[in-house]
């Protein structure tokens, strides 16, 4: 559908942008070298984002567990006060 086409165009535009950035930095222009370096840079971004996401998920899971423990403590203390 159109959403797929729009997505592919965005991905292609992103790749083109990365390749142009690298092309501007290289003195010896080679389409293959530019493509490989762009692929490496994009892969590096992907891996860093995955790592950052995993660290955030772990952080939030710890916080949620702390809150659940706190709620459990409060619930236990309220139960002992009511009896």
Quickly describe the structure.
With 83 residues, this protein is mainly α. Helix content is 92%, strand content 0%.
Which descriptor suits the 3D outline? elongated
Helix content range of the residues, please? over 70%
Q: What integer is the average pLDDT? A: 93
How many helix segments?
2
Count of beta strands:
0
Subunit arrangement of the protein: single chain
What is the C-alpha radius of gyration, as a whole number of Å? Answer: 25 Å
For the biggest sheet, the summary is: none
How far apart, in Å, are the first and last alpha carbons?
A: 63 Å
Which regions have little confidence, pLDDT < 50, spanning 5+ residues?
A: none
What portion of the residues fall into strands of 2 or more residues? Answer: under 5%
Overall structural class, as computed from helix and strand content, comes to mainly alpha
Query: Strand-and-helix sequence, N→C?
Result: HH
Number of domains: 1
Explain the overall architecture.
The structure is a single chain. Helices cover 92% and strands 0% of the residues. The chain has helices at 2-25, 31-82. The radius of gyration is 25 Å and the shape is elongated. Helix 1 (2-25) packs across helix 2 (31-82). It is built from 2 helices and no strands. With 83 residues, the protein is an all-alpha fold. The chain has one domain (2-82).
